[in-house]
Amino acid sequence: MRAPVAPRVMPVKKQMPTSAVGSTVKRLGDSNAPAPQGNRLPTVPTPSSNLGGVPLTERPSTTVTPIQPYLKESRRKRRWRRVGIIAASVFGGAVLAGLVWLFAFSPLLVLRADGVRVSVDTDLLVAESKIVQLLDPRLGTPLARLNLARIRGEVEAVTGVDQARISRSWPGGVEIQVTSRTPAAAIPFAGGYTWVDASGVVVGQKGDAGELPRLEVDTEEPRLVVAALEVWRELPDQLRGETRNIAANSVDSLGVTLTSGQVIHLGSVEQLKLKIATAQALMANSPSARVFDVSSPTLPVTR
Question: Does 165 score more than 70 pLDDT?
Fold first, then answer.
């Protein structure tokens, strides 16, 4: 038979006396607060209570500034900045387009006939009128569109011109400075003389030779002109004054004809000084001879 079970007894919690609760709350609160009476609970400190020795009502408050006005102002500044950039771009483009039109297409800055100025260091060989005529087809062309390099090439192609400098003269002119070639010799032709420079380039045609040495050479062979002028430079002053002309049938067949009718055959320009000295000695020893062949200076021949 089962033994009887003893009933289970639950422990009873002891309640803290009211006076103990009051004293505990009193310790948590202000030490100067009055002790609770009876069953009343202690007063909870309010925000205006004196905590930490400084009343909460006397602490500085934090001011929150709204951000919307600042955002609106920033958007307004950005908008005006964009407007300013667009306006400046439009204005700059208009100014640039105006300048392009003014210099490249405007009738205000075109080449005029009275604006062409030509200066030549000497008008002995180059006539200014020939240079001016080259610019006639370009009258009325805006100065900015003139091809100065092409004009310079055309001017330097004129007979007698050595170099040319071209520059624009605003608002409607062009200045051309011409340096003419220096004549060095005269080559006779049916109606007068063709003047050539030291390199054999034709610089003009005249009715006489002036004080230039006269050459009997082909004007189409500049190297013959160069060789004949080399002979002229090596001649002593006495022979220069007696020289009628210098002939050059080839670079190996050079000769000097004197006013007396005597002829000096020099051959090539090799040993030129020795050949001329030998010819002078022969003329002194044989003044009646008509031909002095010194093409081989060590074996001269007189006839």
Answer: yes
